[in-house]
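Fold description:
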Amino acid sequence: MRTSKNLLKGLVCALAAAAAINTAQAQIVAYDNSSDPVLGRFSPADNSLEFGDQVNLAGDANVVTEFRLEYYSSEAAGTGIVRFHANDGANGAPGSTLFQSGAFDLAADFNTVEVTGISVPLGSDFFTFTIEFNDLQNTQDVGLLLRNPPLVGSSFDDMWVRGANGDWALEQIPFATANFAAQVVAVPEPGTVALAVMGIGSLFGFGYIRRRK
């Protein structure tokens, strides 16, 4: 009976430890390009085109739970849509759409759009985030803010732009690094946490077997 109680206590401790691991992992900032100063802002000449940045996440967390993106708008008009794409298209271009936000109203001046309460498995440690502006005024100036270098994770010096024909192309910003101000918070895939539980549980199981011998 005492051995059974010890086993039960061990399993409870294992589950508690796994829960603590999962809670800690939920706080991982997998990509962070929010350091000062702001180096400028950018949007394509045709600001109705979808564009964004391919980023590489740090660590093993690749289920996005929060996303922040900084933008500028000269007027409180128009809307924006944020998307996540897997880079499974031709020649590594954005392909499958993993996430699309609802349309959000643009506010005037410098702002941050926050996407929370999501759970988007990436299936990889890199992806492309984009924005698409719609319903802008004729004289409205909009764009994403530029910062560099990323504090966590990494990004190439170029960006993806989706042309009017739907094809993606890599472009660069003259005299600037095309790293947009963004932050990605993510957790590991459930299988990672499950393995941790199994690993901890196996330790207690092994101890139980030894005690029975």
